[in-house]
Amino acid sequence: MRTKYNVSNSALDFLTQELQEWLKGREESLEGGEDGPPAKRQKLEFDSSDFVNSLLQLNTQKKRTHYYKSNFNLIEPEELFINSNLKTRMTNGSIGIQTKNNTFQYMSIKKRLTALFSNDGFRRLYFSESRSQDDFVRGTKDSKYVQVHPLFSKTPTAIRIQLFYDEVEVTNPLRSKTKKHELAMFCFRILNLPNSENSKLANIFPLAIVNSIHVKNNSFDFVFSEFLNELKELESEDGMLLGIPDFTNFRIRGTIAGVCADTKGAHEIGGFLGPSANRFCRLCLITREEIKQKSCFDQLEMRTRENYDEAVEASSSNPEKASDTGIRSCCVLNCSKYFHFGENLILDAMHDFLEGVVPFMIKLFLRQLYSCGTTKISAAELNRRIVLFHFSFYDLSNKPSPKFTDAGIRKEGDYLTKQRASQNWCLIRMFPLLVGDLIKEDNEYYIHFLQLLDILDILFSPKIALEQIVVLEDLIRQFVERFRELYPSVQPINKFHHMVHYPEVIRMHGPPTNYWCMRFEAFHNIVKKLAMTNCNFINFAKSAAFHVQSIFCANL
């Protein structure tokens, strides 16, 4: 009840107490001797004392936690020290100064792997992984990255860990407590599992939960210090020893296969300057002025392990040089034996397309239709058609909201559609059906807009043929070049440039839906719902960590 319906601990205490009293009262009401009715004497054969005694083991939070640890392999989060600061506090009417210890919640990856590999179903899925036998790329096992990796290519059963980082606002973003209770969530997935399993929230595992203010003030070093110690054992030649029942000396090797995050988070964890810097791309050395000119991958100078380390060294000796390279500090994850952020060729299709290029092109195309005056489309007409459109069953929860205004469409530099990522995806797929009858078929801006749909069809496919990657590369090149001709005065957004990298990203890591942030963002809703239920933010990171660990325990 706690994990599935967010029932509070006080409510569970009350429920167990009332149930105990009800059973005791019912037992007393059924008491009777030999003179009692036969039906009553038959009911007394049921002894409720065992059930009452079992409830006594679950009538407090402390007892329930002990029971879960003993019977369901609950992994309690570890509370690790960050630093301390002084804080004023009123005691008995007087204000005093006290020392406050700042902590964060860490969930051991070794204990997690021990619990997972102790499960027969998980072991079967993990060791049954195989490469595709056709020319389709379905997952990382089919990717170029695994084939050339020094560990994964030689040890096929090595764990491929996909890390994720993002900040989660657990309070109302429009109220005064915004940012005060914001959490930094660090999670991971195991890419050795099938894609169908990795899409489930049950297979997203929390690694650390921190108040984001501590990350901003102290960088990421303290978060990953304990993780890197465990990773060192996992990357060793002998591997990590796991205490698996019935399997003596069970060892497993593995390392980080990639780090996923939105643009802001990836730049922070990778030590890059913000997305507003001149060299804004974390994969290549392009400048902002070159976005329109460079429309294919061959024109780009990629970041490598070597030029990344050189940029870090230059920035540490002279911080002013950071603007020339786009890097200000070294990523702590580079301490890994195999992983280096300079070679983390991963982008997030959700933020790049569904919250970047798609709303950008929708607003730009609508603005063009307004300015030409040849179409009978308006914000009111678009909203009306959205309301009346018969969306399919699978699109009902993601259908776009009718929030378009004439002023918002005409406003220069405003490329927000006020829709969620999934709504933008639904909107652009249905856009030709919504307003296609109002636009001439030979409209060059409309033809260019439809090219984006062709790109998205390949990009969001769960399996991609090698030939389709070449087609995608050509479609993106045509789209970028045609954009330069149709919108010469418009400066593209950063995510517009990211499109050029996707064909190579797919070759290296497989379909983008395997490493986008969509499922991780859904995982964050668990913590948001808990905050709405608890309404108590005293050390909320600890409450959230224990809650997600309880969910893992229930799902295992």
What does this structure look like?
The protein has 556 residues and is an alpha+beta fold. It folds into three domains: 2-71; 78-271 and 331-345 and 520-555, no CATH class; 349-513, no CATH class. Helix content is 47%, strand content 13%. It has 24 helices and ten strands. It has helices at residues 2-5, 9-29, 38-43, 49-56, 61-71, 109-117, 120-127, 144-148, 195-198, 212-218, 221-235, 263-270, 305-317, 322-325, 349-372, 379-388, 406-410, 421-435, 444-459, 466-486, 494-498, 502-509, 518-534, 540-555, and strands at residues 78-91, 94-106, 136-137, 159-168, 183-190, 205-211, 240-244, 247-252, 254-261, 464-465. The strands form three sheets. The protein has a six-stranded mixed β-sheet with strand order 1-2-6-5-4-9, sandwiched between helices. A two-stranded antiparallel ribbon has the order 3-10. Strands 7-8 form a two-stranded antiparallel ribbon. A hairpin with a 2-residue loop joins strand 7 (240-244) and strand 8 (247-252). Helix 15 (349-372) packs parallel to helix 18 (421-435). It is globular, with a radius of gyration of 28 Å.
* Amino- and carboxy-terminal Cα gap: 16 Å
Q: Report mean pLDDT, rounded to a whole number.
A: 88
Major sheet characteristics: 6 strands, mixed
Unreliable residue runs = 40-45
